[in-house]
């Protein structure tokens, strides 16, 4: 019985220190903090919606919802729900594709562009606040480790 409990406790510690759990914890904490800052700034957008806005912001032309899903490597249904919410909130414009009426073309509204510029400033300030606790060398090493983890996972 004690051996089973010891194995379980060891597994628990191993899981707690796993890449998935650590990255999940950091992501959850970052999103929670970012959402609080967005609320404080009066920006009615969730941190989870930021990638969609930023993809639209950095594109020169309207994109389909499928294009956005592909860029973000997310499922189309999830992207569609967020696009609809951001459209309802006045940040995204949705128009039927002229050539293929089955496709929706998504682009930013003027309000969406304004919000993206404010969000960029918040993201940069947040990044500087967190990464300010690291030396330049530590920051470069940390980013290179994250890039390497992503590359290993992509293989």
UniProtKB/TrEMBL annotation:
This is HTH marR-type domain-containing protein. It comes from Dyadobacter linearis. It comes from the Bacteria. PROSITE patterns: HTH_MARR_2. InterPro entries: HTH_MarR-typ, MarR/SlyA-like, WH-like_DNA-bd_sf, WH_DNA-bd_sf. It holds the Pfam family MarR_2. Residues 16-151 form the HTH marR-type domain. Coiled coil: none annotated.
């Amino acid at each position: 019985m004690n051996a089973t409990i010891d194995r379980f406790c060891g597994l628990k510690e191993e899981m707690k220190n796993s890449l998935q759990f650590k990255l999940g914890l950091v992501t959850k904490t970052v999103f929670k903090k970012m959402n609080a800052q967005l609320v404080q700034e009066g920006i009615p957008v969730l941190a989870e919606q930021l990638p969609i806005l930023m993809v639209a912001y950095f594109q020169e032309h309207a994109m389909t919802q499928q294009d956005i899903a592909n860029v973000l490597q997310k499922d189309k249904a999830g992207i569609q729900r967020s696009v609809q919410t951001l459209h309802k909130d006045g940040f995204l414009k949705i128009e039927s594709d002229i050539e293929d009426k089955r496709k929706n073309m998504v682009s930013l509204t003027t309000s969406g562009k304004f919000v993206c510029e404010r969000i960029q400033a918040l993201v940069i300030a947040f990044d500087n606040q967190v990464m300010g606790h690291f030396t330049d060398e530590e920051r470069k090493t940390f980013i290179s480790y994250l890039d390497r983890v992503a590359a290993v996972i992509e293989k």
